[in-house]
Amino acid sequence: MEYTTLGSTGMRVSRLCLGCMSFGDPDWREWVLEEEESREIIDRAIDLGINFFDTANMYSRGESERILGSALSGYDSDRTVVATKVYNPMDDDNPNARGLSRKAIEQELENSLERLGRETIDLYQTHRWDYDAPIEETMKALDDAVRRNQVRYLGASSMWARQFAEALHTSDALGLDRFVTMQNHYNLVYREEEREMLPLCEKEGIGVMPWCPLARGYLARPAEEIDATRRGESEEHMYRHPYREGGGREINARVEELAEERGVTMAQIALAWLLHKDWVDAPIVGTTSVEHLEQAVEALEISLSDGDLAFLEEPYEPVRVSGHE
Question: Which domains does the chain have, with CATH numbers?
Answer without folding.
Answer: 3-215+280-303 (3.20.20.100)
